[in-house]
Automatic annotation (TrEMBL):
SUPFAM superfamilies: P-loop containing nucleoside triphosphate hydrolases (SSF52540), Ribosomal protein S5 domain 2-like (SSF54211)
Protein name per its UniProtKB record: YifB family Mg chelatase-like AAA ATPase
InterPro entries per the UniProt record, alphabetical: AAA+_ATPase, CHLI-like, MCM_dom, Mg_chelat-rel, Mg_chelat-rel_C, Mg_chelatse_chII-like_cat_dom, P-loop_NTPase, Ribosomal_Su5_D2-typ_SF
Keyword Phosphoprotein carried by entry: no
Matching Gene3D superfamilies: 3.30.230.10, P-loop containing nucleotide triphosphate hydrolases (3.40.50.300)
SMART domains, A to Z: AAA
Family membership noted in the UniProt record: Belongs to the Mg-chelatase subunits D/I family. ComM subfamily.
TM region positions: none
Lineage of producing organism: Bacteria, Pseudomonadati, Pseudomonadota, Gammaproteobacteria, Pseudomonadales
Length: 496
């Protein structure tokens, strides 16, 4: 047969659109033409595939070979198409049977020896192959990751000859059986290790219960970073769909291995990070820190030290839960439903309000320092808390402190109430649901509006106060929002 079709997958963002390799052999001077909008790495596949076929002991056809990667308008990059290209040539030349190829999808980069090397982005392709109902052929190094898509038949190969033997029926491959090495989540650090700071721990529980964003302000050494690192352990476990979303993002990002899955991400970029590093980008757009923190926590320490333009790009994802990166030839959409926790000092030296009186910052310096943060960004942070210095207690026992297990139980109960009532955490309530779920008495509404006027709160900030109050009522097991919850929610706005 002079024409063969082999299925494979491209990578666009965190999606894996289908690609069909069409291999056609015709009479004429020997030549190999590769079409279908291939990038440089794909164009170079011609030489890798030729050497792999010859090294494996097959004949490379001395005919005019045309390889088309369809659809033609979809950009293709990387070495992920090598294995499909080689199988297409062998099937079109009659060295392998072309029948039955429709039931397979092939991914893998070929070495000159015919060995099959690992690639990035296998999990999104595995999820798409499961939906299409095909068997997925991947490098053995990627097989464990591909098996995270339960219900998918995976064939793991180390060499081109292994797949050729399977397709010819001479040496059928058994489906790969996962070892479960990726399913080993690490224990989270315990909240009880943080001494004191009861108000901050309370705010942390509230933030976890309602998926609220949190800003911690205070002098150095008061435990802001310790508190932030404990937040992922308070959040409910990822369900299967969320866990696969997180794993797919890290599969695409690479080269970090998919270890300790499923676990909520905790990302802590340095304050020197650029805009593309934070939100994603590049000539071929890749995920940034906000996408790598999807379904987890993004912790920005020393918040005013970040470039203001970099921080401003967070405003849209904080509202929409996604980021769209536009380039000349494509628009790539990345998920970014993260929980923001930020920490900052109250002034440039960090000791404003400290009982020691060591702060020597002028009002102008303090104003300039805080002015690095825009009002619209601070408006999108629900909880603002001042973390004060406490008395030193070296060697104090953590036995009396709130543990992660106890706090996680409170959070889980509050989240269960929210999911049963509106199907999402309180922080994600839309305006229509907000008016249905957060019903205030006429007296409380007038009181809240008056307080908002005195504190110069925007309407968005006032809505977020109501959402926090709803979370406080859920933690208390109350069906209606009381004045006490509104007052506590307002404190989180007035404390910074």
């Amino acid at each position: 047969m002079s024409l063969a079709l082999v299925h494979t997958r491209a990578q666009v963002g965190v999606e894996a659109p289908p690609v069909v390799v069409e291999a056609h052999l015709a009479n004429g001077l020997p030549a190999l033409t590769l079409v279908g909008l291939p990038e440089t790495a794909v164009r170079e596949a011609k030489d890798r595939v030729r050497s792999a076929i010859l090294t494996a002991g097959f004949e490379f056809p001395s005919r005019r070979i045309t390889l088309n990667l369809a659809p033609a308008d979809l950009p293709k990059d990387g070495g992920r198409f090598d294995l499909a290209l080689a199988i297409g040539i062998l099937a079109a030349s009659g060295q392998l049977p072309a029948q039955g190829l429709d039931g397979y999808e092939c991914l893998g980069e070929l070495a000159l020896s015919g060995a099959v090397r690992a690639i990035r982005g296998v999990l999104p392709a595995a999820l798409a192959a499961r939906t299409a109902g095909r068997i997925l052929v991947v490098p053995r190094a990627n097989a464990e990751e591909a098996c995270l898509a339960s219900g998918l038949t995976v064939l793991a190969v180390d060499h081109l000859l292994e797949l050729a033997g399977h397709l010819s029926g001479q040496a059928p491959l058994a489906p790969y059986r996962p070892s479960g090495l990726l399913r080993t989540p690490l224990p989270y650090p315990d909240l009880a290790e943080v001494q004191g700071q009861q108000a901050a721990k309370r705010a942390l529980v509230v933030a976890a219960a309602g998926a609220h964003n949190l800003l911690l302000a205070g002098p150095p050494g008061t435990g802001k970073t310790l508190l932030a690192s404990r937040l992922p352990g308070l959040l409910p476990p990822l369900d299967e769909e969320e866990a696969l979303q997180v794993a797919a993002i890290h599969s695409v990002a690479g080269p970090e291995p998919l270890e300790h899955w499923p676990q909520r991400p905790f990302r802590q970029p340095h304050h020197s990070a650029s805009g593309p590093a934070l939100v994603g980008g590049g000539s071929r757009p890749g995920p940034g820190e906000i996408t790598l923190a999807h379904r987890g926590v993004l912790f920005l320490d020393e918040l005013p030290e970040f470039d203001r333009k970099v921080l401003e790009v967070l405003r849209e994802p904080l509202e929409s839960g996604e980021i769209v990166i536009a380039r000349a030839r494509e628009r790539v959409r990345f998920p970014a439903r993260f929980q923001l926790v930020a920490a900052m000092n109250p002034c440039p030296c960090g000791y404003l309000g400290d009982p020691s009186g060591r702060c020597r910052c002028s009002p102008e310096q303090i104003q300039r320092y805080r002015g690095k943060l825009s009002g619209p960004l601070l408006d999108r942070i629900d909880l603002h808390l001042t973390v004060a210095r406490e008395h030193l207690r070296l060697g104090a026992s953590p036995a009396a402190e709130l543990t992660t297990a106890e706090a996680a139980r409170q959070v889980a109960e509050a989240r269960a109430i929210q999911l049963a009532r509106q199907g999402r955490p309180n922080a994600l309530l839309g305006l229509d649901q907000l008016h249905q779920v957060c019903v205030l008495s006429e007296a409380d509404q007038r009181w809240l509006e008056g307080a908002g006027e005195r504190l110069n709160l925007s309407l968005r900030a006032l809505h977020r106060v109501v959402k926090v109050a709803r979370t406080l009522a859920d933690l208390a097991g109350q069906a209606e929002i009381q004045r006490a919850q509104l007052a506590e929610a307002l404190q989180y706005r007035a404390s910074h």
